[in-house]
Amino acid sequence: MNFPLKILSTSQIRQADFYTIKNESIKSIDLMERAALKCFEWIQSKYDLSYTFYIFCGSGNNGGDGLAIARMLALSKYKVYCYQIKLGNNFSNDFLVNKKRLEIKLNSIKQIKQFPEIKNKSKSIIIDSILGSGLNRNTSGFLKEIIFKINQEEVERVSIDIPSGLFSEDNSLNKMGGIIKSKHTLCFNSPKLSFFFPKNHQFVGEFHVLDIGLNRDFISSLNSQYYYLTRDFLSNTVKSRKKFDHKGSFGHLLIVSGSKGMMGSTILMSRAALSSGVGKLSILSPKCGEHILQTTVIEAILEQNNGKNYLTDTYNLKHDWLAIGPGIGTNLKTKNFLISLLKKVKTPIVLDADAINIISNENKLLSFIPENSILTPHPKEFERLVGKWKSDINKLSLLKNFSKKYKLICILKGANTSICFPNGNIYFNSTGNPGMASAGSGDVLTGIIGSLLAQGYSAEISSKLGVYVHGLAGDYAKEKFGEISMTSSNIQEFISLAFKKLSI
Question: Domain range for residue 43?
Answer without folding.
Answer: 5-224
